[in-house]
Design a protein that fits this description.
Layout: E1 2-11, E2 16-26, E3 31-35, H1 42-49, E4 57-62, E5 65-66, H2 71-76, E6 78-81, H3 93-103, H4 108-121, H5 137-149, E7 155-159, H6 167-182, E8 186-190, H7 194-200, E9 203-208, E10 211-217, H8 218-225, H9 230-237
Parallel strand pairs: 3-8, 3-9, 6-7, 7-8
Antiparallel strand pairs: 1-2, 1-4, 4-5, 9-10
């Protein structure tokens, strides 16, 4: 389970509240969509969740571990796919995947099986011997996705995961996200593609100007929206319409 309680993160010496008293609980087996306009605080929340950014107040509990009190144990439960491909480009694809496996203690037999499975799914087998710096944008996205899932994390966090993927790879990733949750894991992802969130998510949260404005299951949200699309509802609650 992921539990965020009263999370606050400020910049400029406290003058700017990027995340303002945010509380969320995400249960095992859920695909959770984290939505909001640019600058709403989505990436700041995610980077706080994964331990990249310190936060001012509140707490983040991941699989029973408090992120501040037990950071190593909490981070072992996380697989993270960033939105900007921060990756070791001087490694080959296979070197990078073995490095990620080593970091998370994935044994040789398990890593071999998973690398074969996921590189076959995303059609990267022939590129594993090439340096990542020569990869296309979409290939870098796919190698990041694979590297983040090799250790079977309980919490898989993806920041704009479909950016740069071709239609087949985007479809395969969405199917993988569903299968991953079916095994009792959590998929937490941010996206600007609201049609995808509407079709894929069990629950969504909408954040605007650092504050949580919606936290709902998709079924409950449909009742509230009536005939509105998720896009129309999103624009109405974020003040963009």
């Amino acid at each position: 389970m992921l539990k965020i309680s009263n999370l606050t993160k400020t910049y400029a010496g406290g003058a700017v509240k990027a995340v303002d008293d945010l509380s969320l609980t995400v249960n095992e087996g859920e695909i959770f969509g984290f939505l909001g306009p640019n600058g709403a605080g989505k990436s700041t929340t995610i980077k706080s969740m994964i331990g990249v950014l310190p936060f001012d107040s509140g707490s983040i509990d991941i699989c029973g571990y408090d992120l501040k009190a037990s950071p190593i144990e909490a981070k072992k439960c996380i697989g993270y796919v960033p939105d900007n491909h921060v990756i070791y480009e001087k490694l080959t694809g296979i070197e990078y995947l073995n490095f990620m496996s080593d970091v998370y203690g994935v044994d040789l037999i398990t890593r071999k099986e998973k690398i074969e499975k996921y590189t076959s799914l995303f059609k990267l087998e022939s590129a594993l011997g090439n340096y990542i710096k020569a990869y296309s944008h979409g290939m870098k996205q796919k190698i990041c996705v694979i590297g983040a899932i090799l250790h079977e994390p309980k919490l898989w966090v993806l920041d704009e995961p479909l950016t740069g993927l071709d239609p087949q790879s985007a479809y395969d990733l969405k199917q993988l996200m569903r299968e991953y949750c079916a095994r009792g894991n959590i998929v937490f992802f941010s996206s600007h593609v609201l049609d995808v969130a509407e079709k894929l998510c069990d629950r969504v949260a909408i954040i605007n100007k650092g504050k949580l404005v919606v936290d709902s299951t998709m079924s409950d949200l449909k009742a509230v929206r009536q005939d509105e699309s998720l896009e129309e509802y999103f624009l109405s609650v974020t003040g963009d319409r």
